[in-house]
Amino acid sequence: MSTSTEELHQLLVVVMDINPHQLLFARQPGSFSQLLNSVMSLLNQHLMLNPTNQVALVAAHATDCSYLYPDPSGGGQLLRQQDGQYEEFYQVETVIKERVGLVLAKDREGGQASSESLLSGALAMALAYINKQQASRVASEKFSPRLMVMSATGDSAAQYMNYMNVFFTAQKLNIPLDTCMILQDSGLLQQGSDITGGLYVKVEQLTGLLQYLTWLFLPGPSLRKMLGAPPPVRVDYRAACFCHRQLVDVGFVCSVCLSIFCRFNPVCTTCHSVFKAPGKPPHKKKKMGDNPSRIK
After folding, report:
1. I need a labelling partner for 155 at 20 to 30 A (CA). Which of 15, 80, 145, 186 fits?
2. Pick from 71, 150, 69, 164: which is nearest to 117 by CA?
């Protein structure tokens, strides 16, 4: 059977939140290992689908973003394993586990304990990696990249602008962004998946994570139409104000730079434009006339 050209040269870049201060890891001991093993299984399955497929893994943590696979140091070929495992799978697992240990050790040395991760920065690094891979290929060669983000933390309105830049860049490059949230929802990542034509799924139980990854996120966007995917969720398109970084339903928008504020500000803090304060609505005087219904 001939292989379709759409199935060749697929690149899957996974952005994984490995911040050890997430509530998921504190409440469920051993969940970090389960999450990491599920991600490595997804990457190996993607490599197994076609010999031309490629994978990459980017980690987002509290203080930085790091490449986990491929090894950014460009190390040589690993020694052959002894347990009968396929060499490429062995290389993926060994490099990722080694890099995760180095990243977590560096975070512990920094001493900054925060439950918020730099997911937007990791997504920007993933887009840069995809762009680099695309630039190194021949123009006539078919190349299908896609992004996937996994996290157990909620919204981070402080990174709102960075998220929007990533979403619209991915949309312009025709790169779908899939989101797998674990036990929590994220309104901003919902918007990103909807803008780029990706899939957003919230996993309620960590024990079923690998099943969700294999069933929903392993097939590409062209194959998902043939599968019984869950119905799309209602997207929360609220924006974050630039003054307090909080999601707002109704706000004030600068007519010059389109910055959003939850309260009226006479001077835009982004572009420094000056606006007049809104005055009171005009008071209409009542007309004094004869009332025809008045009994004389």
Report:
1. 145
2. 150
- Map residue 137 onto helix, strand or coil: coil
Question: Which token pair is 260?
Answer: 């959003």
Q: What is the CA radius of gyration of the chain?
A: 25
Burial tier of 226 (Cβ tally within 10 Å: 0-12, 13-18, 19+): exposed
Q: Where are the alpha helices (DSSP H) in 153-245?
A: 160-172, 187-196, 209-212, 221-224
* Partner residues linked to 182 by β-bridges: 203
Pair of tokens at residue 271: 């572009």
What distances in angstroms separate CA 62 from CA 14, 42, 100, 112, one per listed residue? Answer: 18, 24, 14, 7
- Peptide bond preceding 282 in cis form (omega within 30 of 0): no
pLDDT of the chain, 296 residues: tens digit per residue: 344 555 678 999 999 999 888 888 878 888 999 999 999 999 999 999 988 999 999 999 888 899 999 988 776 565 566 677 788 888 899 899 999 999 888 877 766 667 788 999 999 999 999 999 988 888 777 789 999 999 988 767 778 788 989 999 999 999 999 999 998 888 889 999 999 999 999 999 889 999 999 999 999 888 887 887 777 778 877 887 878 777 788 888 888 877 888 888 888 887 888 887 766 667 666 666 555 555 54
Cα gap 12→24, rounded to integer Å = 25
* Residue 188: alpha-carbon gap to chain centroid: 8
Handedness of CA 210, 211, 213, 219 (dihedral sign): positive
135-148 b/e (C-beta count within 10 Å ≥ 16 → b) = eeeeeeeebbbbbb
How far, in Å, are 282, 288, 294 from residue 285 at the CA level?
9, 9, 21
Select from 218, 217, 159, 224 the least CA-distant residue to 191.
159
